[in-house]
Amino acid sequence: MNAVQDLSFVELILHAHFLVKLIMLLLFAISVISWTYIFRKVFAIRAARRLTEQFERSFWAGGNLHTLHQSASTQRDQSGPLARIFEAGMGEFIKGKQAARDALDVGAVLDGARRAMRAAFHRELDHLDTHLNFLASVGSVSPYIGLLGTVWGIMNAFRGLANVQQATLAVVAPGIAEALIATAIGLFAAIPAVVAYNRFTHDIDRLAIRFESFVEEFSNILQRQSR
């Protein structure tokens, strides 16, 4: 086994075993995809929070609900998740009132509006949760993928010692260093994914609480207006 005198990262990667190189390349690709999803999710959650706050200010300012509903309907894609939940509930309430013919139908109208808001609520959460499973998988699997490369590299390094009459640290160190880079890259991919997953989960849970609170409060408002 030829000892690699230059222990820089580039030289260690270039002299690594072919299988270890493939594992490093896989981990690098996973890391790039993970960071892409992280940046997208940062902007998506930030936009959802900003638009939610804007809609809450407009809603609780005491404006006309029909006017607010028309505004949310015409700008549905840019209105934010909470506005879309409101639009679903208010739209169902308006259609239900138009179809209702007596006071006995009021309960059914309110139930329909609540169901429409709950359905919209779950759609918005599902949209916000997109790619979180991938980040969780990267955080849990990447270290083991890197460890596989490390184990294989160390095995290859020790097999090479069979052709060396005298095993010294200078002979063993490069092969082990090459193998350990795979674990380092695996951790480099896993740690940001785990941190981002935990942070995004926390932020989405907080938004979900705000959405649920709005559904309950708006349901009470619709109930008072239907009397």
Automatic annotation (TrEMBL):
Keyword flag Cell inner membrane: yes
Keywords, alphabetical: Cell cycle, Cell division, Cell inner membrane, Cell membrane, Membrane, Transmembrane, Transmembrane helix
Transmembrane segments: 12-39, 132-155, 175-197
MotA/TolQ/ExbB proton channel domain residues: 82-212
Subcellular location: Cell inner membrane; Cell membrane
Signal peptide: none
Lineage: superkingdom: Bacteria
NCBIfam families with a match to the protein in the record: tolQ (TIGR02796)
Family recorded in the similarity comment: Belongs to the ExbB/TolQ family.
Descriptive protein name: Tol-Pal system protein TolQ
Provenance organism: Massilia aerilata
